[in-house]
User: Fold this.
Amino acid sequence: MTMPATTPRSPRPLLRHSERPNIPRIPYTTYLRELTLPDGRKMTVDKRNIGFLCQGKVEEFGGKAVVIIGWRGWAKPVPVVEAYDDVKGWWRFDPSANRSPR
Assistant:
């Protein structure tokens, strides 16, 4: 059993919209990127849904270097024609902490 507080807590004062602290908001487009499929179509990807990345075999995709993107969940992985280091750097960058890739 815990002891009851001896002094009552003061309620937090209500703030008007103009008085609220200026917290920077991250636009949702920060998490989106348009990638190209091997057949030339474009696909918009939200990096919060990516489960893993790996490099595809060049000989399996007609001599094109591809990156295989695996999703969180049951969706099938998708190959995209992009540089592996570019996609990995974008995926691992944390805009909320303004950190470099992990």
